[in-house]
């Protein structure tokens, strides 16, 4: 739909080959190969500490010591032109506690689209994203006085500013009540279908996996599976994605042991 | 909330090293943050005045001493205040994740640094104006030169404080550590800047060290205004050195802002 990409639109949103990240003495991501298609919601699932956040930081371009190929929207990750095309939400809400919700958004909007000429559009954009995350009644409250779930929604609202082609959301629904979680997932689907935006959403809650178009299952810096939820369940003969994940983990552990003994 | 209105997206502007609108937006944001914290503003502005007032009556019997120390302190206060405020503020920016977010956005590093310098510089103008006015007309500080020159040096000192604070915040991982940089970076300069004894009375080694510390020139500049009616060559040299140091440290501070981190 609204495609402002400089690269050809038929390139995938994210393409990785041999992606490796080293943090200190630890190899956090080990030679990952995967593709995230455009216009869909891809879930990034796995236990905490498996490298989800590092992978997301690599895609956004804030992670150091990344080797291998990592192309995002047709450009190498971290390319300056990508900074306006990607919306990123860190795991911990990153907003100014001593500003109100609206002041926070006003500032980040001014960074994305600076100048007096854009001020009218900035205002309507800010109002729109506050509505999107259901914080209209708290727009003039200090972010520091909000609850944890509300603050993470302010952080999410910042990422929705402008019209990012790719949204990278690190556990956006953690600590939210079921109603809000459902509403946010509806919003995510709305963004994907209406705007044709790509969403990469991490979670360690497996029931959210059912709401994604595609899944990347991660464990210990490796990708165990890259498929649709249905295909995963069918392949492993499981009832739920959670069972499928456990099945794949057991398989990987068994394969690892076999490798150890034959060595 | 699940209905996304289809407002046309704002065409985002690309990253540039320094963009006036982004710099101004950043400065306005920093000041807006401060406005929600009136106690900090009151402390920043009132404490130097109270200290000057105190000093005036500590040296009640020797107004000559008050003239010397008072003028030096007008240069030192803005440096200390801005150092503390900036180091804590930028440390917060680093630890809260907002710095990572901003650097993933099309914000130039220069925008961030210039924004901070502009915001705290504005505050420094208010602080220095009040302190200088109080010293000159309230406490009878006897200055031969123009009060505007005092204000100019005070401003340059504030800029230097902002630059130093920004720079050291990169080496602090908590607010505890950031505050400890105050005695580490500022106190030696206060001891060696010529406030307590003229620098040429010091041990030659210490005098040599004081020659390379920027605060020495800040205090020297203040004393030039104290003693001479005109802008002397020494004053110009002092002012340029302080300004040069501030710019150099701001540059170093910019180098500590990394878009990619571990």
Order of helices and strands of chain B: HHHHHHHHHH
Q: Report the average pLDDT across residues of chain B.
A: 86
Radius of gyration of chain B: 20 Å
Largest interface: A-B, 61 and 42 residues
Largest sheet of chain B: none
Total DSSP E strands of chain B: 0
Strand content of chain A: 15-25%
- Helix residue percentage of chain A: 25-40%
Give the amount of beta strand of chain B, in percent: under 5%
Uncertain stretches of chain A = 1-7
> Structural class from helices and strands of chain A?
alpha/beta
Helix content of chain B: over 70%
- Count of alpha/pi helices of chain B: 10
Spatial sequence of strands, sheet with the most strands of chain A: 6-7-8-3-9-10
Distinctive features:
heterodimer, A: 263 residues, alpha/beta, 6-stranded mixed β-sheet, 4-stranded antiparallel β-sheet, 7 helices, 10 strands, disordered N terminus, B: 262 residues, mainly alpha, 10 helices
Question: How would you sum up this structure in a few lines?
Answer:
Chain A has 263 residues and is of the alpha/beta class. Chain A is 37% helix and 24% strand.
Protein model, in words:
The complex is a heterodimer of chains A (263) and B (262). Chain A has helices at 52-60, 101-112, 119-132, 148-160, 178-195, 229-236, 241-262; strands at residues 14-23, 26-36, 41-45, 66-72, 75-76, 86-89, 166-170, 198-203, 214-219, 222-227. Chain A has 263 residues and is of the alpha/beta class. In chain A, the strands form two sheets. Chain A has a six-stranded mixed beta sheet with strand order 6-7-8-3-9-10, with helices on both faces. Chain A has a four-stranded antiparallel beta sheet with strand order 2-1-4-5, with helices on one face. In chain A, a hairpin with a 2-residue loop joins strand 9 and strand 10 (222-227). Chain B has 262 residues and is an all-alpha fold. Chain B has ten helices and no strands. In chain B, helix 3 (63-95) runs parallel beside helix 6 and helix 3 (63-95) runs antiparallel to helix 7 (175-192). Classes of the chains: A alpha/beta (263), B mainly alpha (262).
